[in-house]
Amino acid sequence: MDAAEVSDWEGPAWSQVLAAAAGDNAAAGRAGALWAIYGPLLAPCEDRPFVIGQIGQSLDGRVATASGHSHDINGPCGLTHLHRLRALADAVVVGVGTALADDPQLNVRHTGGESPARVVIDPRGRLPADAKCLRDDGVRRLVLRCTDTPMARGIESVALPHDDGVIAPETVLDALYARGFRRILIEGGPQTLSRFVAGGLIDRLHIIIAPMIIGAGPTGLQLPPILRLDAAIRPRMRVFRLPGDDILCDCDLRP
């Protein structure tokens, strides 16, 4: 499959995507690779959320070394792409494992656009009060838990049904949709994203592949085993070569 070169990475094209996301119909439908990447993420959200998943990985599918080091797998354009996905989302979701391991800010810094609400799936209340994603910068901050435990002022603690400490992905999406979030980015980590993929709940999966082979370490997806290849997920896919060396695989996982 040939990869489309993204020649309009910088310049006004991203501003046009943001304008279309804000409801400017005149900005929608623009030609160019940038619109081809991000335009499909602006699908109308009527009776259910539109869910985007993202992975940044090596050629051999690793998202970190065996020791857990994961910084700089992808180049600057891959990082910009992640922040653009955040800017297009109403809410960005991570599991508590990622929040503890990486302490991400989950805001928009490397591109234009507004930061989304930040959501952490934390069934057993492991997230520390000083986590960067809980800092008060004007956006909503939600922690999804098994119990309705009070948190610091301004942080929404949402108690949800669970199965032995595991909150089902469908329950997460229903709770976020009920609170007004229509476009949701599942940013990580691998275990959290894998549950959403296995449940058939991801509409679009963006995989950024870096030209490196790590050889060992966690993989981006960890799905239940299958016996035959005819049971494999075979998404409709487009491939884009970003400036630099990263490759973007845009996987359409809708039925």
SSE topology sketch:
Blueprint: E1 4-5, H1 13-21, H2 33-38, E2 50-58, H3 76-88, E3 91-95, H4 96-102, E4 117-121, E5 141-145, E6 155-159, H5 169-178, E7 183-188, H6 190-198, E8 204-210, E9 236-241, E10 247-252
Parallel strand pairs: 1-9, 2-7, 2-8, 3-4, 3-7, 4-5, 5-6
Antiparallel strand pairs: 8-10, 9-10
Kindly list the characteristics that best describe this protein:
10-stranded mixed beta sheet, alpha/beta, single chain
Give the C-alpha Rg. Answer: 18 Å
CATH topology: Dihydrofolate Reductase, subunit A
Q: What proportion of the residues is helical, as a percent range?
A: 10-25%
Q: What class would the helix/strand composition place it in?
A: alpha/beta
Estimated share of beta-strand residues: 15-25%
Total number of strands: 10
List the domain count as a whole number.
Answer: 1
Largest sheet: 10 strands, mixed
**The named CATH superfamily:** Dihydrofolate Reductase, subunit A
Description:
With 255 residues, this protein is an alpha/beta fold. It is built from six helices and ten strands. The longest helix is centred in the first third of the chain and has 13 residues, at 76-88.
